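The passage that follows is intended for readers who have already worked through the single-chain material. We present the inputs for a multi-component assembly, then the predicted structure in tokenized form, and finally a short commentary. You are encouraged to pause after the input and sketch how you expect the pieces to fit together before reading on.
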Amino acid sequence: MDIIELTVHELIEKLKNKEITREEIVNAYSNRINEKEADVQAFVTICENVQKQLAQVEQKQIKSELAGIPIGIKDNICTKGIKTTCSSKMLENFIAPYDATVMNKINAEGMINFGKLNMDEFAMGASTEYSYFKKTKNPWNLNRVPGGSSGGSAAAVAAGMVPWALGSDTGGSIRQPASFCGIVGLKPTYGLVSRYGLVAFASSLDQIGTLTKDVEDAAILLNVIAGHDEMDTTSANREKVDYTKSLKKDIKGLRIGVPKEYFGDGINPEVKNAIEKVIAKYKELGAIVEECSLDIADYALATYYIIACAEASSNLGRFDGIRYGYRTKNFENLKDIYRNSRSEGFGSEVKRRIILGTYVLSSGYYDAYYKKAQQVRTLVKNEFAKNFEKYDVLLTPTAPNVAFEIGTKSNNPLEMYLADICTVSINIAGLPGISVPCGVNSEEMPIGFQLIGNHFAEETILNAAYAYEKESKFRENYKPQFKK
Amino acid sequence: MSREDYEVVIGLEVHAELSTKTKIFCSCPTEFGGEPNTHCCPICMAMPGTLPVLNEKVVEYAVKAGLATNCEISRDSKNDRKNYFYPDLPKAYQISQYDKPLCEHGYVEIEKENGEKKKIGLTRIHIEEDAGKLNHDEYAGGSLVDLNRAGVPLIEIVSEPDMRSSEEAEKYLRKIKSILEYIEVSDCKMQEGSLRADVNVSVRKKGDTKLGTRTEMKNMNSFRAIVRGIEYEIRRQIDLIEDGGKIEQETLRWDDVSGKTFSMRDKEDAQDYRYFPEPDLVAIRLSEEYIENIKNSLPELPETRKIRYIEQYHLTEREANLLTASKYLSDLFEKAEKISNNPKAVCNWILSDISRILNEKEMEAEQIPFTGEQLAELVQLIDKGTISSAIAKKVLEELFENPKSPEEIIKEKGWIQISDEGAIKEIVQKVLEANPQSVADYKAGKDKALGFLVGQAMKETKGKANPQMLNKMFVEAMNS
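Having made your guess, compare it with the prediction:
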């Protein structure tokens, strides 16, 4: 038995049966990081104090079954006393004076924070190549990107350096890297998980979610992080749900819609092929699968980039070199501090989006861009609502292709933006989405499919995902090979 | 052409800090003062990842202000971000309200010196957060940022361009201040900056229907500065037009020392604030019931109080008007009236001697150092005959300098009135003996002589003798 191959629910089981100890778990993961981090480069900060954390957990006698379970945290989630860099030079030495709400929950369970995971700078990107610090590698093939922006989180879980991780998803930043790395990525409904302490990229789209080895772990971790938070007025005040309860339900009669717009020319034939097999499997399991239409999908990407950039241009204003973060050495007056700190502290993709967002909010352009995008956003929501009158879940590819080679898209922003084409409309509509691995292509790179649910229908998509995963046995059949 | 050929158009944007206990988006105290950056938390310091939570009291106070100024209250409102860079603005945006303010289409009524009444329209009232403060550091030569004020709630009250003179502008601002004080949503301390106004001024030839180009004087924080600033701007603009020049739309800074305005930025530098809806906050939806409850909880407003004063205390309209114009004066009146049971006398003291001293000292009513109880005691001391009104005036001066019980003051100073019949008789006798000519004059029918004799007696007693008793005894003595 290799501890780092086990899922969290398997670890819990073995802890219960006293087959392993927490110390063995922590040691196994520490060793694995030592062994693989040089190749994968998933961490911005590795916590050196995991033994001490474990000792404290033992001392506090935390009753949770998750006590002592390792976790990795995307580096845009604030952690008191540990650097939170957003993979930016701007926050290279920034230590937040407070814990994010999700960190309070993680800590209350007694989980061990193994470190902060690499990402595209301020979560802007789809390959983690826009990190100021390092390029994270895909554990299936070290010449390829892990996807992004939660690329460090996805790679760390795929490489077995942590059993699970938290990420954030603004336009696909959990689901797309999960798909690229052959793991499960869940973006909850907007408002299910508190954003307090998540460094904002696009406030109306950002959502914290999970990257896990399998669907059951996603349900377990969602149980921990979901819930209303008084510190985030956009978080929903709903009755608490145990997401593991309805996981194993029969899916006979489940109505699945497959929007035809997600199978157009841009989708790689091998990906298409894999998704068709998924559809066949669902039919076998007794689900009713039908083609449907989301004809607004074509406008989703443009709408997404207008709204996300507009909000980002405002959210990133606070990085001005005055109170915290990078300040230029080269200034004579206030304007210099602003200009030079921001010019030197931000990377090119972040600057591109700030400029774009500033433009679409400018007087004279607001109506043509931002206002129009908000109108389209309403149409997208309505279009999804119409589909959810007929279907329980919608099924699409997670990404149009498998993980690409490092360096092939980082200089072509438009092509990079297309990597989000299947995922952004879910954020625009605020819906939950999950990416589940469904095979590998001819180059042995993993492929994922996406299930989309209605608002707060996490139980439904988890149930559907679980039913497929149980049949497909992806984890038993395929493992990352760290190909060089 | 002269000044009389021009019409002046003035509009005000009044900022009032709300007197909620905590800030608008976090639970830090709003208290004025405090060591720099001690009333701050990660939220009002704009630490990455923090989120605002709207203080419901702020909405309540703003709705109160709207209802008290005859505004329509929006059932459906929201917050917006106003984006600009400045070191006192930690998020690089101010959370304000753009196109859906909480209150719209209101008015207040002012009364001018000549008794003429006029309605001034309110365009809107919206809620927003205050910025921090920059302190210039003499030693390091830089500026230090103090974020204690960042996130203190404000309402901005925007008037229509309905005012036609500095007098109207002053009366309008006094009215707004008075209303905010009555409904207790702001302490309106202009010296501390909790009430300040941006003043827009333009002029046009009489008869023109199009407005002239306006200039805006920022952050005016005294009535005197506002009146002076407006007068200066009117003169400057008319002179410029008369000389064939053109008014530039610009933002001005009023300098109280030189009595002039200076340009801060012109239209070319105008900032594009890139307003957009604040995505971190949910929309503000107010129910009919909520608004109705606030309406029912509104305290008595100046207009109602004025009418009550006329009916209940039989004050004149002018007296009632002057008293109720300031909540502070009005409250002082009521407290002193209740204890002394002499509304007429309390009213007279406030409107004559107290107002005169305030004027001389250039003080606002809320700076009066003594209490209603002390004023009541003063009136009672006169009513009981313990002191004369001449002495009472001296006591009042003393109350402004060193406020304490008037009884104590007169004891300390030895100002107690002589009302002892024997003692007065003695004085009367003494004065009569010393002034036989006056006695003769009086007996010959010259009533003025009596006044002289009373005056002599007062002089003799350093103003402490009871004048009514003196009068009576002199008459009795001379008629016997």
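Commentary: The interface with chain A takes residues 42, 45-54, 81, 83, 85, 87, 90-93, 145, 272, 274-276, 279-282 of chain B (CB under 8 Å). Chain B has a mean pLDDT of 91. How closely did your sketch match?
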